[in-house]
């Protein structure tokens, strides 16, 4: 097992952060807001995540600043939300310092209790050889039961392409997959290829408008290919569970600035003190020819 190093660093743009490295990867997460993972790359490679260093991507809606904490900011990187998406609840600003707990081969990053939604979010990061385990937790700290799903969103750097595998489970005369589309989507969008085994969605900086789709990702993985590297993340889809957005456990959102690769846990009702967990496994795979890689799967 490769040795893991965990250290606190100060970055010029983001201030205090935690950096986790081994012989394969470098990962950086903020300690001043979040929890947010801001950098993930091969140890000597570039960041596959998009970060909004100049905070240029803004939403000026007054609904985004109803909590008296300043409007929610994109920041970029990887974040934890709760689904279904709704204003203003989803956009509770994660501007406060993060509590860090050091554990074997990683850390737990825990946000303060949100004083309006009464949920508390945490991300547990453990690096084991060429895999990074990113375990998301949402706990209800309020007085009343709430229904939600953990929602893990990775904001990917521009210029790449998302890969979504079709469901392969044989169901005879019954359908085996769902495709959810948002009102602003164009089915003929040139960024999207509706392939036989995979759907692919490109990130294009010159595209008009946004595109988003969701699907029941029973295959349990999706990827984003950029700069010769495949960011591949795995998650578990429970065929017996109900998921948000017409049973979507995977969603992809593409706009002119970035692409989001999003996985979701099942919808659950949490009583006071209960939590839900959603586990992803990340890896980066250098690939010379993406089509050959997919054909071999």
Describe the structure concisely for a colleague.
4% of the residues lie in helices and 44% in strands. With 297 residues, it is mainly β.
| Main β-sheet description | 10 strands, antiparallel
Please state the structural category. Answer: mainly beta
**CATH class descriptor:** Mainly Beta
The rough form would be described as: globular
Task: Give Rg in angstroms.
Answer: 19 Å
Number of self-contained structural domains: 1
CATH architecture: Distorted Sandwich
Strand content: 35-45%
- Proportion in helices: under 10%
Order of strands across the main sheet? 6-7-8-9-21-17-16-11-14-13
SSE string, helix = H, strand = E?
EEEEEEEEEEEEEEEEEHEEEEH
Total beta strands? 21
Averaged pLDDT, please? Answer: 95
How far apart, in Å, are the first and last alpha carbons?
27 Å
As an assembly, this protein is single chain
Low-confidence stretches: none
Number of helices: 2
Reported by name, the CATH topology is: Beta-galactosidase, Chain A, domain 5
């Amino acid at each position: 097992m490769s040795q893991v190093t965990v250290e606190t660093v100060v970055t010029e743009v983001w201030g205090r952060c935690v950096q986790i490295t081994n012989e394969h990867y470098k990962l950086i997460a903020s300690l001043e807001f979040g929890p947010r993972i801001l950098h993930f790359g091969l140890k000597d490679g570039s960041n596959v995540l998009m970060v909004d260093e100049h905070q240029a991507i803004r939403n000026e809606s007054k609904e985004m600043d109803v909590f008296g904490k300043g409007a929610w900011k994109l920041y970029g990187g990887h974040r934890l939300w709760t689904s279904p998406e709704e204003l203003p609840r989803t956009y509770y600003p994660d501007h406060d310092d993060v509590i860090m707990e050091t554990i074997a081969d990683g850390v737990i990053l825990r946000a303060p209790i949100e004083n309006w939604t009464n949920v508390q979010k945490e991300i547990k990061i453990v690096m084991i050889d060429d895999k990074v385990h990113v375990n998301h937790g949402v706990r209800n700290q309020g007085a009343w039961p709430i229904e939600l799903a953990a929602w893990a969103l990775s904001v990917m750097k521009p210029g790449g392409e998302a890969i979504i595998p079709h469901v392969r489970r044989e169901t005879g005369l019954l359908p085996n997959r769902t495709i959810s589309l948002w009102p602003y989507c164009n089915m003929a969008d040139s960024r999207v290829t509706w392939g036989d085994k995979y759907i692919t969605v490109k990130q294009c900086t010159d595209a008009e408008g946004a595109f988003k789709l969701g699907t029941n990702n029973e295959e349990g993985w999706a990827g984003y290919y950029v700069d010769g590297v495949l960011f591949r993340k795995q998650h578990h889809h429970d065929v017996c569970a109900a998921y948000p957005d017409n049973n979507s456990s995977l969603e992809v959102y593409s706009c002119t600035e970035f692409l989001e690769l999003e996985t979701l846990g099942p919808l659950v009702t949490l009583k006071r003190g209960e939590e839900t967990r959603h586990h992803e496994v990340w890896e980066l795979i250098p690939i010379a020819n993406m089509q050959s890689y997919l054909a071999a799967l």
